[in-house]
Write a structure and sequence with these properties.
heterodimer, A: 273 residues, alpha+beta, 5-stranded mixed beta sheet, 4-stranded antiparallel beta sheet, 10 strands, 27% strand, disordered C terminus, B: alpha+beta, 6-stranded mixed beta sheet, 12 strands, 31% helix, Ribosomal_Su5_D2-typ_SF (chain B), rRNA processing (chain B), ExoRNase_PH_dom2_sf (chain B), Ribosomal RNA-processing protein 43 (chain B), exosome (chain B)
């Protein structure tokens, strides 16, 4: 910190911290509460995707879903670290980080160290690692603003960035989460809803191949409920996949018209689909 | 690099993309000799600059700037601090510049870029010495409470002239800043008054009524020029920065006064005339930057 003087004075944020005492309105079988942003329980926030956000990278994507904003850059395939052993198949290296202003109170962003490895696991199954032996593909994500459902959004954004970089994949990966709040199932939760959850379910899905690359369930679920949640999730993943595909098609038609493309073709990544 | 003649022969046979990678310096100089730069710019012109609000909902003020493809996102968060005993009427500013791994193939997680803390320090020095912010304006209750301004700048895409883009985003973020209205609670802490619920609070509790904007007297604007042989090349891209070793960064404020001048070493000796040329180029650049920023500010007021 380039602060003034040697000792940085202790500061506090003037934001109201009243959230703790507020009783969750979602409990007790009440079916009539409304979501804070006025959505239906099974309604996702509108999604905006754009590829080619970062020119310095081999491929990149920017996603904005509600207040959640994420940029993912893909570098490589490039030389693996010297310490790495020889490998017949390519390596995937993932990292997820947050900006210091991603959360309402500065510097209180959770570290989410596990997100890097979860992102890795969600993408691994979709990438044709055999197509870049001995080398590494780096996938770096930066959450500019955290507004809930960060991990599924990072995963979807990363798969779009990989496609933009021309990395061979079997299919795009679309990821959506559903939370259980009292008796209700809530799709694509915002941060406030996440903090009241009784259980969460996250699915990363390849819509064209109808294959799941990652399924994470936490909390207490009944069999009926989990089936319902999975169906809702898969349905939403399919729709999200469509939006992502449309974004890629648009980018491809623009770059073929204007031919601003960087050396090395884009969109090779979807040949296997 | 191989023998000059040999590479020259090779160069003529190779396609431009290959020669750009194999003989970058020759490739570059062949462009300079025909008075153009590899990205198609004339020698003395800077890239197009863009400035707009950053739309970071969790920040009190934010701005996004682009110079060519170099992209910066600056956000300001205001916190409360107890001012130091020797300056009871002053707030404080902290500036941090980040280069996350997404911005460049050279930065990897766990290995922060060396240049980032250097730019942090330069930004802090420039902002403080430009007289842009009056620290006394950041005082809330003399001796008891003052604003601590955290300015965080993230580089989202690094393609040269990082300091220029970062300073521009800092100037814009301060211009867009909306100071939150705070009131004194019973425990002696200051809390934000929510915009909707203003009616419940009596006005006398409000500490900083009607003071939502900082008075910004003069904004600093900068231009970095690369010096290569006899050429002065403003606003270098990252490709050009790897080829050149001497840079001059000039910072002027809106009234045209010189705020600072950095020339961090380098083999090309900058003549007095060269420095004067750099300042003249910065003066031209400043008009463009100021105009774009003014437009962005008026656009924001309309919304």
């Amino acid at each position: 910190m380039t602060g003034k003087g040697s000792a940085t004075p202790a500061t506090y944020s003037p934001s109201p911290t009243s959230r703790k005492g507020k009783p969750p309105a979602y409990k007790d079988g009440d079916l009539n509460w409304a979501r804070p942003d006025g959505r239906g329980f099974q309604q996702c926030r509108p999604a905006y995707f754009r590829t080619g956000a970062v020119n310095a990278a081999s491929g990149s994507a920017y996603v904005e879903i509600g207040n959640t904003k994420v940029i993912v850059s893909v570098f490589g395939p490039r030389e693996s670290k010297k310490a790495m052993k020889y490998s017949d198949i390519g390596r995937l290296n993932c990292n997820v980080s947050y900006t210091s202003f991603s959360t309402p109170v500065r510097g209180q962003q959770l570290d989410h160290k596990e997100y890097s490895s979860m992102l890795h696991k969600a993408l691994e199954g979709a990438i044709i690692l055999e197509s870049f032996p001995k080398t590494t593909v780096d996938v770096f994500a930066l959450v500019l603003e955290s507004g809930g459902s960060d991990l599924p959004i990072v995963i979807s954004c990363a798969s779009l960035a990989l496609a933009d970089a021309g990395i061979m994949m079997y299919d795009l990966v679309a990821s959506v989460s559903v939370y259980s709040l009292g008796v209700n199932l809530v799709i694509d939760p915002i941060s406030e809803e996440e903090s009241y959850q009784d259980g969460s379910l996250l699915i990363s899905y390849m819509p064209s191949r109808k294959e799941v690359t990652q399924l994470t369930v936490t909390g207490e679920w009944s069999t009926d409920k989990i089936n319902e949640a999975m169906n809702i999730c898969l349905d939403a993943c399919g729709k999200l996949g469509e939006i992502m595909r449309m974004c890629l098609k648009e980018a491809a038609s623009v770059s073929s018209e204007v031919n601003l493309g960087r050396p090395g073709g884009r969109l090779k990544g979807l040949q296997g689909a | 690099m191989g023998l000059p003649n040999e590479s020259g022969d090779l160069l003529s046979k190779m396609d431009s993309d290959a020669s750009r990678r194999l003989f970058p310096l020759r490739f570059y100089e062949s462009h300079l000799s025909i008075s153009t730069r590899p990205d198609g710019r004339p020698l003395k012109s800077a890239r197009e600059a863009f400035v707009g609000p950053g739309d970071v909902a969790s920040a009190d003020g934010s701005a996004m700037t682009k110079i060519g493809s170099t992209t910066m996102l600056a956000a300001i968060k205001m916190e409360i601090m107890t001012p130091s005993a020797d300056k009871p009427d002053e707030g404080s500013i902290a500036v941090e510049f980040y280069m996350p791994p997404i911005c460049s193939p050279l930065v990897r997680p766990g290995r922060p870029a060396e240049i980032a803390p250097v730019i942090s320090k330069q930004l802090y020095d420039t902002i403080m010495s430009s007289g842009m912010i009056d620290l006394k304006e950041l005082s809330l209750i003399s001796g008891k409470a003052a604003w601590m301004v955290y300015l965080d700048i993230y580089c989202l895409d690094a393609d040269g002239a990082l300091f220029d883009a970062a300073l521009y985003s800092a100037a814009a973020a301060f211009s867009f800043l909306q100071i939150p209205v705070v009131s004194l609670s019973e425990e002696g802490r200051l809390t934000i008054i929510p915009e909707e619920g203003n009616g419940n609070k009596s006005d006398k509790d409000v500490v900083n009524k009607g003071k939502r904007k900082l008075t910004i007297s003069s904004l600093p604007f900068s231009l970095t020029c690369g010096l290569h042989k006899n050429y002065i090349l403003p606003d270098p891209t990252s490709e050009e920065e790897t080829l050149m070793e001497t840079f001059v960064t000039v910072v002027l404020n809106s009234s045209g006064h010189l705020v600072s001048l950095y020339k961090p070493g380098g083999p090309v000796l900058a003549q007095t005339s060269t420095i004067q040329d750099c300042i003249a180029l910065t003066r031209q650049r400043m008009t463009d930057l100021q105009k774009s920023l003014d437009e962005a500010i008026t656009e924001m007021k309309v919304d």
